[in-house]
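[INFO] parsing input record for L-fucose:H+ symporter permease
[DEBUG] input buffer:
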Amino acid sequence: MKNNAPLVSKDTLLPFILLTICFAAWGVAANMTDPLVKVFSKIFTMSSLQSALVQFAYYGAYFCLAIPAAFINKRFSYKTGVLTGLGCAAAGAFLFYPASQTMTYGFFLAALFVLAGGLSILETSANPYVMAMGSEKSATRRLNLAQAFNPVGTNLGVFLAATLILPNLNQASAEERAAMSVGELKSVIGAELDAVMLPYVGMACVLVLVWVAIALIKAPIQESVETSVEDVKLGASLKRLVANKHYRFGVLAQFFNVGAQTCVWTFTIQYAMTAMGGNEVSGGEILQYSMIVFLISRFVMTWVMQYLYPARLLMIMSLIAMALCIFMTQSPNLAGVIALVSISACLSLMFPTIYGIALEGLGEDTKLGAAGLVMAILGGAILPLFQAAIIDSAGVVISYVVPAICFLLVGGYGYFDMRAKKGCVDNKSKVDAEALKDMEMGIAK
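[DEBUG] output buffer:
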């Protein structure tokens, strides 16, 4: 049955547009960061596991800052949370300049942590903010529409990395770098890190402009906030959420979904280079194709959800993604690369769909529930470390069993939600039938 509930009203259109820019912004940041694993591995001559600390710092910050974001949202408002997140993200992006001057890997990780911490607050606030801008019936579709602009950012992020960072990497091998003099090596690394710094500082300037625009407009919704710190009561909300099986499984599904997505995209360049040869630039082009597929598919999936229940679509696409990962491990060639790119079509609906169905019916616990789902982004910090360890020991091709397992578990959540909804419908039908029978007996009497 087609869902005709309106997505966005005239009153909320401008705030909705500004928030979609925020969705694009964290897409830029996330997908400029994915190639940095390969970039830092080359610049600082590190193993895949060591360079994967980039993702650990980035997604670990999401985990650490989500609960503070929930506190901000409950005590103040979603708008305050959005502004706080934008400010922190801009500060982290600006830190890339001093990091490039010190030429220290740890400084870059710290800058990424601050940047991602701001984005964690931003995402924890913006997702439920969008869902609240209209009917609850259309909330999941509305979030999918807003999230459809996230791939616009991911494409821009990959494009910036492919044009401003990857081409400026010195092609000297680890052995050739080891043979350079200290001064020569410092000059090479300095030029490479300047290339890394430039797009991040540019993004910081854009984030400041978005911050000003959102600060100047009136909040489009009336939301209940706590009048004092004591009234926030995160503990009571947390107990209710932990007891909610549907929400609890949603957090786990989001953990494995983000882990799978990060694994797939982080090591796309390495897989493409192994399967087809070439260098980081040609591998970056494959990643760009993946982002284009992701972008187009997000809009397509939003349209399909008018006709197909979101959880069913989630289950189907998760199983397809798992099959594609398995195929990649058996065919490390052009066909495997095509399968790798195709996974992005399956990924396109997963995050907002899990987010939307996990938050259904949470009421006053929605703000903390949103934080829990953002904390689940920790999967993007942990699971790539497992894949990187497999890469160092067995190669990048076989390592794609890690996202394959993740996709299977995500599909399981889609099946669970379908069963849960079917049970609710069956119970409602039973209650309605019993009520009708009682009414008929009353009339007979």
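[INFO] Residues 401-444 form the longest helix (44 residues).
[INFO] shutting down worker
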